[in-house]
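Exercise 7. Predict the structure of LYR motif containing 1 from Hippocampus comes.
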Amino acid sequence: MTASTRRTVLSLYMRVFRIARTWQAHSGVASDTLTERNYILQEARTLFRQNQQMTDQESIKKCIEECEARIEIGLHYRIPYPRATYLPPLGLATQKGRKLRAQQRLRKQAKPIYLESHKET
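Solution. The predicted structure, encoded as tokens:
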């Protein structure tokens, strides 16, 4: 990791912690605020530690873009949780052979950048 990349990642990490420190829930309820602050902190710790050993510059760049997108979406909508995608599972093709693989490839390509770190349920 280059020095500028390291600086960018650390500044994003600190930015997330500053946002969590000043976060107010949209509902205004104190317990919701505390829950959402804890979620932001836990999610940041988990994802940054999960990606700590990355060395590929392209992967690091994608993670930085994902982090920036999640920050902007969270601040804009005042919701710290990732926004759901509304494409139904296997909704575009039949579930046999090549079409199934094509469907899975389309779903992977259609996944927004801010959900790259989340596994589908």
